[in-house]
Amino acid sequence: MKTMDVATREEIALFTERSNWKAIGYVAFNWACVAAIFCGVAIWTHPLTILAAIALLGGRQLGFAALMHDCGHRALFANDRANDVIGQWLCAYLILSDLPRYASGHLKHHAFAGTRNDPDLPNYQAYPITKQSFRRKIIRDLTGQTGWKVLRATWQRGRADLKQAPWNGNALLGHVIMNAALFAVLFAFGEGLLYLMWPVAFLTTYMLIARLRQVAEHGAVPDRYDLDPRKNTRTTLVRWWEQPFVAPFHLNYHLEHHIQANVPCYNLPAFHRFLESKGVFEQTEFPTGYRELFATTVPA
After folding, report:
1. What range does the domain containing 174 cover?
2. Considering 35, 46, 109, 163, which has the largest number of Cβ atoms within 10 A of its Cβ?
3. pLDDT band at 296 (very low <50, low <70, confident <90, very high)
4. Would you state the pLDDT for residue 166?
5. What secondary structure does DSSP assign to the chain, as a single string?
6. What percent of the chain clears pLDDT 90, i.e. is strictly above it?
7. DSSP string spanning 261-273?
């Protein structure tokens, strides 16, 4: 479907309008949450607070991925330069990603969603799967096996890039600089060891949360090989306590994103309500919460 079939250009423009202030607020909020998590553990250092922090940091790392995603679409900031610079340095590098490389692959996902040429298809084409299979995936994520594969691939890619262009915006250098900066700030406050929670979260809880997000968006959809996004993509209506972990910055409104990819994340809830009022979702089911969702994607 096309939004022009149900809305005027003026109506669509209301939702695609970008705001630098909202974008800055979202980025600042994610950083503030990260700071609050580290401060909380510094004040109340205990194995339980450390475990809770690792879980929360995984959600904030997904938050950086969500912001990087919008920057990759040039949708977060009104200024394209801000999308490039802030999306790269304050979002992507911290989670060992690279905005230009990510955007290049992700735009292909949008171009080929609903077809067998979708480059992201291997992430969710097997769903629905059995509980036993899903349990094995969760174990691999939480024990760091998945994260180690990602880390090794990032290192190999970075080394190859260094050989080609040693000092020309190399992502590996950016990863080192931003993670060293995070460690330096913590070290300056006498809490350098707490930095270890960041890579541990990346290798474990972030990998699990990223998997859950991918399955929620495209796993066991009505028809993954139908070009209509209402058939190949899903929106999940999340509960408030699920949002910080699996759906930061309205990441759960993925169907709306595939219908109109240049709608900034801060406009997605309103865009959802607008499309609903136009009857676009009359035949579309929205799971309420991830427990309901995984009851269909991971059957007994």
Report:
1. 3-297
2. 109
3. confident
4. 60
5. --GGGTS-HHHHHHHH---HHHHHHHHHHHHHHHHHHHHHHHHS--HHHHHHHHHHHHHHHHHHHHHHHHHHTT-SSSSHHHHHHHHIIIIIGGGT--HHHHHHHHHHHHHHTTSTT-TTGGGTTT-S--HHHHHHHHHHHHTTHHHHHHHHHHHHHHHHHHHH-TTSS-HHHHHHHHHHHHHHHHHHTT-GGGGGHHHHHHHTHHHHHHHHHHHHHHTT-S-TT-SSHHHH----B--TTTHHHH-GGGTT-HHHHHHSTTS-GGGHHHHHHHHHHTTTTTT----BSHHHHHHHHS--
6. 87
7. TTS-GGGHHHHHH
Give the angle 34-202-216 at the CA atoms, nearest 5°.
95
Q: Residue 73 pLDDT > 80, yes or no?
A: yes
Quote the number of domains for the chain.
Answer: 1
Between CA 280 and CA 217 the distance in angstroms is 18
State the Cα torsion 229-71-253-55 to the nearest 10°.
Answer: 130
| 63: nearest Cα among 201, 174, 164 | 201
Tokens 């992700």 map to which residue? Answer: 106
Q: Are 77 and 84 in contact (CB under 8 A)?
A: no
Quote the mean pLDDT of the chain: 94
Structure tokens at 243: 């949002």
Phi, psi for 177 (deg, rounded to 5) = -60, -50
Q: Residue 191 in contact with residue 43, Cβ under 8 Å?
A: no
Task: Look at residues 98, 73, 80 and name the one whose alpha carbon lies nearest to residue 20.
Answer: 80
Question: What would the pLDDT profile of 90-145 be if each residue is shown by its tens digit?
Answer: 999 999 999 999 999 999 999 999 999 999 999 999 999 999 999 999 999 999 99
